[in-house]
């Protein structure tokens, strides 16, 4: 009961008839750009988190000015 190649081709043909190849090309480009922007934003967020975590750690020999919650 899976989707066969014939069924996929029929669905693809219907989509091309409804939307046209030019519009589908534009949608593909827009989708690719959106994915690229999302990846860049995620990478920037990870870099900010890494920089923040590195700021919180004292350097060797440095005394941390923050008080611990335990005492």
Could you provide a short overview of the structure?
The protein has 71 residues and is mainly α.
Describe the protein's architecture and organization.
There is one protein chain. The protein is mostly helical and 71 residues long. The protein has a domain at 27-55. It has helices at 5-19, 21-56. It starts with a helix and ends in a 15-residue tail after the last helix. The mean pLDDT is 82. The protein contains two helices and no strands.
Stretches where pLDDT is under 50 for at least 5 consecutive residues are none
By DSSP, the count of extended strands is 0
Give the count of helical stretches. Answer: 2
Shape: elongated
Q: How are the SSEs ordered, and which strands pair?
A:
Elements: H1 5-19, H2 21-56
Describe this protein with a few key phrases:
mainly alpha; 71 residues; elongated
């Amino acid at each position: 009961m899976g989707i066969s190649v014939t069924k996929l081709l029929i669905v693809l043909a219907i989509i091309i008839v409804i939307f046209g190849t030019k519009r589908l090309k534009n949608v593909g480009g827009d989708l690719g750009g959106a994915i690229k922007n999302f990846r860049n934003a995620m990478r920037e967020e990870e870099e900010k988190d890494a920089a923040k975590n590195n700021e919180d750690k004292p350097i060797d020999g440095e005394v941390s000015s923050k008080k611990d919650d335990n005492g």
